[in-house]
Amino acid sequence: MGVTVTEKAGVFLRRMIRFNGGTEKSGIRLIVKPGGCSGLSYDMELADEARPGEQVFAGPGFALHIPGDCLSYVEGSVIDFEDNMMNTQLVFRNPNAVSSCGCGTSFNVEGGPAAPEGGCSKKGSGP
User: Fold this and answer.
1) Which parts of the chain register pLDDT below 70?
2) 78: β partners
């Protein structure tokens, strides 16, 4: 199943690869780490080659690398891009998320870490 990157998100991410010193062969590594106001957060970095244990998926014009220990958090997700008068951002549609933050980069899964007190989880009592 993996993770799907829409063409709109692909255009944005290819631009980010170039702006961050990547080459035509560079891809994106999607990482899930503890943090954010919902307990987990998405992070990205340039990926020039696959690391042991990573899954590599074809994105629109680049490879999407996902470490094996992160895959279960994002399996089945769609990464899209929103550009309007209010927001210009990547949008993660993650079927594994049981809560997410208004910022769009923080989420949690069933049995995941507790969100920090005062977080802005949609299912919590944030601001």
Assistant:
1) 114-127
2) 4, 93
Q: Please state the pTM of the whole predicted model.
A: 0.83
Checking phi first, is residue 72 left (phi over 0); if not, alpha (psi -120 to 50) or beta? Answer: alpha
Alpha-carbon span 114 to 79, nearest angstrom: 24
DSSP state of 86: S
Report in angstroms the alpha-carbon separations of 33 from 101, 113, 122.
Answer: 15, 11, 19
Q: Supply the pLDDT for residue 79.
A: 96
Specify the length of the chain in residues.
127
Instruction: Look at strands 62-67 and 54-59 and give their pairing.
Output: antiparallel
Q: What is the C-alpha to C-alpha distance for residues 60 and 52, in angstroms, rounded to an integer?
A: 23
- Upper half-sphere CA count for residue 54 (Cβ side, 13 Å): 19
Residue 106's H or E segment, with its range, is strand 106-109
Contacts of 118 (CB under 8 A, 6+ apart): 37, 126, 127
Domains detected in the chain: 4-109 (2.60.300.12)
Q: How confident is the model over 27-43, as pLDDT tens digits?
A: 999 999 888 888 888 99
